[in-house]
Amino acid sequence: MTNKAHCKDKPLIHKLRYLMRSSSYKDWFKAYQLVQNKTPENIKTFDDFDSFFKLDIKAFYINNMVYDLEMDLYNEGRDDLNLLKMRVEFCRWVYQQFSQESDLNIANFRNFEAESLWEIGGTEQAEKLFQDLITDFPDFAYGYIYYADAHWQSNWSYQHEPNYAKAESIYRQALKKPKMEDIAVVQERLDDMLFEKKHPEEREKIKKTRLKHIQSRKNLSPS
């Protein structure tokens, strides 16, 4: 049910619309910061948010912004781990604030959070988040995919060692659910991993480049 209340703070609404109209992820993050502590607890869905801040009147939709922002933070975060840390914070807010959103949206943002935590070195916490995710959403293919991928495709796996056995066990866990959507993607990932495991020279071809990039990126700033 859509919440019928509306925000009475016109300057806030205008500022939010202005930031959301931007094509810069920096402005989108400012928009998130602007409403982070000003969104009532009873706003539990994207539609409720759009209605409360009167965004739908101007055809602005929080759904579009949150997905665009998380993607840009991920892409830019390849060169700056501080942006991945921001992505963790942002994604957590999305699924906690919009707790009555669709299962797909909730699962996606929990997945993005765990993925980012893994890459910034919080592997133990990320492991727990991934395990909770596939427990809560056992038919969400990308929960298994991101979880398994982290063990052999992530920058972390190049800094340390790929854990092919762990990745394979996660992929195969997903493959036991034949009715799962995107099951073909799981099989494709597993096949790619098994090929790399059998042909370690393929990994060596890109390892030097990956490590050079890892060394050149901006690491986390002191808290």
Structure description:
The chain contains 12 helices and no strands. The chain folds into 2 domains: 126 residues, no CATH class; 86 residues, no CATH class. With 223 residues, the protein is mainly α.
Key descriptive features of the protein:
70% helix, globular, mainly alpha
Biggest sheet character: none
Number of domains: 2
Sequence of secondary-structure elements: HHHHHHHHHHHH
Bin the helical content.
55-70%
The value of Rg in angstroms is 19 Å
Q: Which class best fits the helix and strand makeup?
A: mainly alpha
Mean pLDDT: 95
How does the SSE layout of this entry go?
Layout: H1 10-21, H2 25-36, H3 46-52, H4 62-77, H5 81-97, H6 103-119, H7 123-136, H8 141-150, H9 155-159, H10 164-175, H11 183-198, H12 200-216
Helix pairs in contact: 1-2, 4-5, 5-6, 6-7, 6-8, 7-8, 8-10, 8-11, 10-11
What is this structure, in a nutshell?
By secondary structure, this protein is an all-alpha fold. The protein has helices spanning 10-21, 25-36, 46-52, 62-77, 81-97, 103-119, 123-136, 141-150, 155-159, 164-175, 183-198, 200-216. The protein is globular.
